[in-house]
User: Which sequence fits this backbone?
């Protein structure tokens, strides 16, 4: 750090994203991207004419995308706000609903950015341990009188709570916002979107990065009561009114409209997931019951760090988190069937050796 850095940032530990190697060709199973290309409708929407319009600012209200999203999710446009990735919407939500006197509650094993943003904005973290089997006990979140964020399904465990469990948490915290991060919901979770009209304290966050093939476009949606969404817009228009670029607005609309492609690719991932889980279990791995596009797996035979390194040597990238409770575990993104066969071949070589 330079001698000019604000002392308020000295203690911040930034998030470490999964590797995005630019040199070697890896089988990339480390950042939960889709192995499939975006819908052909997306490719057509990002036309030369649209590129030429890049000289003009994008629509700060994102009206066209909001109309499409509202129809798609059966909501009103004022119940939705697009973000530059769901990360931005989560950040806006923490900025809007937490501060030094209003902590954020979240699980000990969950998405790492929640803690990073708390550090950046001096929000106290109330970290609630998952149970020994990595499940979350909803009762741990009753009557907290704090803002809550729950990834459902959770990452990196892949485990999901039923909608009724989240509803219990919403009821038990009527005076606090409950943020449900649904990054992986399209792979077998139960979305809380149908609860939005009933619970004014519910904020649902979804992303186009995992199930809609647009990680590089950076697009997410925050959905909730219109007043909550107005609060998020208050933050957005105080920071970066043109936060979604023109090409991404077009790409996102096209991706939402192509429901057939979305359903086909989600179904392919779910099928490959179930095949891969069986294959890993046949090799002695413990594999959690994933409702996401990744598997969380461990073997008694080798530590997670060693497996990660040896797989990388063989050209397969997976994610290992060097955190005490999960150091023996790997998070493995579901790729194409061929990707998963290559992973299993590499694992067989490593475990025999
Ligand atoms: C990937 C992920 C995000 C971030 O998604 P972007 O839309 O790409 O910013 C947020 N939350 C969880 C749990 C994720 O896994």
Assistant:
């Amino acid at each position: 750090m330079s001698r000019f850095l604000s002392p308020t940032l000295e203690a911040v530990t930034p998030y470490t994203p999964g590797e995005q190697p630019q040199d070697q060709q890896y089988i990339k199973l480390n950042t939960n991207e889709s192995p499939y290309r975006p819908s052909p409708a997306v490719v057509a929407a990002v036309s030369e004419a649209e590129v030429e319009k890049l000289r003009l600012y994008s629509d700060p209200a994102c009206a066209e995308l909001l109309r499409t999203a509202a129809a798609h999710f059966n909501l009103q446009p004022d119940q939705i706000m697009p973000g530059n990735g769901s990360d931005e919407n989560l950040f806006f939500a923490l900025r809007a609903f937490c501060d030094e006197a209003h902590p954020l509650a979240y699980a000990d094993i969950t998405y790492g950015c929640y803690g990073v943003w708390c550090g950046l904005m001096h929000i106290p973290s109330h970290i609630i341990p998952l149970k020994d089997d990595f499940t979350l006990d909803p009762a741990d979140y009753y009557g907290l009188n704090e803002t809550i964020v729950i990834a459902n399904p959770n990452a990196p465990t892949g485990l999901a709570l039923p909608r009724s469990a989240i509803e219990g948490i919403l009821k038990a915290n009527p005076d606090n916002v409950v943020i449900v991060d649904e990054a992986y919901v399209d792979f077998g979770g139960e979305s809380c979107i149908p609860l939005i009209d009933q619970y004014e304290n519910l904020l649902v966050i979804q992303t186009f990065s995992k199930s809609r093939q647009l990680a590089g476009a950076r697009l997410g949606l925050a959905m909730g009561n219109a007043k909550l969404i107005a609060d998020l817009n208050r933050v957005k228009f105080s920071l970066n009114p043109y936060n979604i670029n023109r090409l991404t607005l077009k790409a996102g609309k096209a991706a939402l409209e192509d429901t057939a492609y979305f359903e086909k690719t989600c179904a392919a991932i779910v099928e490959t997931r179930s095949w891969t889980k069986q294959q890993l279990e046949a090799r002695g791995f413990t594999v959690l019951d994933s409702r996401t596009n990744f598997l969380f797996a461990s073997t008694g035979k080798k530590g997670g760090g060693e497996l990660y390194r040896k797989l990388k040597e063989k050209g397969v990238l997976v994610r290992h988190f060097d955190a005490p409770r999960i150091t023996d575990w790997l998070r493995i993104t579901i790729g194409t069937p061929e990707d998963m066969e290559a992973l299993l071949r590499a694992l067989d070589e490593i475990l025999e050796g």
The pocket of pyridoxal-5'-phosphate is lined by residues 32, 85-87, 111, 151, 155, 181, 183, 207, 209, 215, 220 (CB under 6 Å). Residues 259-282 form the longest helix (24 residues).
